[in-house]
Specification:
The protein is mainly β. The protein is built from four helices and 39 strands.
Length: 663
Amino acid sequence: PPSQPLRPPTAAPSFFVALTNGDFELPGETPYGWRAHAGDALVTFEGGSRAALLTSTGAATAWLHQSFAVEGGRWYEAAGRLRPGAGTDLARIRVAWYASGDASGPQLSVADSEDLEGGSDSFATVATGPIRAPAEALSAQLRIMLLPAAESPATLLADGVSFARTAPPPPATRDKPPEIAAPAPVEAPSFFASLTNGDFELPGDAPYGWRVHGGDAIAFSEGDSRAVVLTSRSGATMWLHQSFTVAGGRWYEAGGRLRLVSNVLLARLRIAWYASDDASGAQLSVADSDAIEGVGDSFAAVSTGAIRAPDEARSAQLRIMLRPAGEAPAVLHADDVSFVPTADPAPVPTPPALDATSASPSPDATAASAAAAAGTPPTAALEPYYLRSASAVLLRITELLPDPVQSGSDAEYEWIEVTNVGAAAVPLAGLILADNHGRIALPTLTLPPGAAIVIAGPRAEIGDAIALRQGSGLFNGLGNSGDRIVLATQDGAIIDALSYGSDDGVDQPPLKAPAAGRSLQRRFDPAGRLIEATVADQPSPGRIESPVPPGAVAVVEPDARPTATAAAPSSAERASPSSVESLRRQLDAAASADRTAWIVLASIAAVALVAAAAHRARELLRAAPPARGRPSRRPRRWRRYASGEQVSRRALSPRRPRRTPPA
């Protein structure tokens, strides 16, 4: 009987020795050996043979990929036949190189074929041409990429895809008599449509298309290829930069290889976004790659990962940054720098809504109430948060400044205020504050009721607020046009979260993004429920602005009879001098334990004075005798203190002699 064709295994491996099933002829409804990203892949018949059909599932770039082994330093070529369908903006083939043995981890660099525009009725051949694997490459990933024109599904047909070793490109031929190859223009343009000469192979002593700040840059030969050497002139940070066009709202990735040669403290790549057409004016925000520290003998790959251009961005500047370890000249080598569009990463799960009303009183809350009745400041237990409502621990993000007016790195001037809005002291050990690009561990101390701590950059203007200063800045800088802030435990249990501007991951619609120099303020009731979120013209780091709650004790004129009703204690009542003194001791201990990680600044005397004045005001009210005439109809004049207590000015003035009514 005729033999049946062999069918491939049901589950294909995720890694191959060489490219497999590039013609998509192996049986099966899906292309064996290939995996789809941000789309769906099927096998279809085109002209009597089988081909792969890739369909996008959104506006993000979709691709079909396969990973396999390569030899570092060898020359290869990738090619294939593509037919972009309706709804496709462009299509290409990409090869990404990896130092790992299974195409995992950061990519070393990428090489692309030419682009095909969408709406074609026939197949067209694309190829990368001869491309050389980096010396440290052990694996590669070939991607058949589809960039949709819109949210609606876009299609791409692919067939005859290959990846094979090839000969190096022949040297450039010269007519007789021999002529010297034309050098690059003496004066390169200051702006490009896309990153140019990222491998530094264009001729010339200086790297064509790049400009240097605070140092010197020279191209040199590194084996069979060229690289660039950066040399600092002083102890200040220097960088090599290039500016180019970007599309606002799209995702990109920057990568490269760096080698620290001498006297370098650290090096990294940085992307700065601009709203202008030529990377001029104030930058919108920045995104950094991982940093390389310590002098070494070999190149190390760095990458920013997937980063999203702000919606209003129209240009960007890529910087190769070098921070010297001292005043002596520092030397850094760089090669294979890239900046390419990429797919958006998997979305961050939306934090659950905070619902204080659904939480039943816990044993911890009962114990806290009993301790408060006994006059002892209670402490809310930290673990386990995930067993109860997040609002049971009343820490809230009450204010933030994401867009400072100062020039330079925004991260150095930004700050976030976290407040204990409850009636129990809360320890901060084991908690983190995070945004879309990084996280900060909070210090080991206990925050008294009504107190606030400001997490700030090293140059943030926060007055005398109690602060945790980050020497390297706040994360990689808060997004001016939008970002997400989360207060959580280290195991991911969320206590409070917000999103603003272009980020709707938490608040829907998101909170308004404040303009430069303004802050986003959030106010809560005593149960931790959000009352309002506003943009403030005058930021107030460390000063708690809470409204007079309904039923609060009213301070009236001395000749009127005060009427007291039960109310939640105000922040000044809760932040007593003893608790402030306790916080001071904790801050001093924490600062002594780890002075290199963060710097604590506090003005304890001012806070204690405010609390003492508030206690004195309440004593005056309790001692006030009954009034004999009509209560005063004069308006109440309130004075607001940094701790949140509101006391009338006359309540703090000396008592006037009482007038005797006529007989």
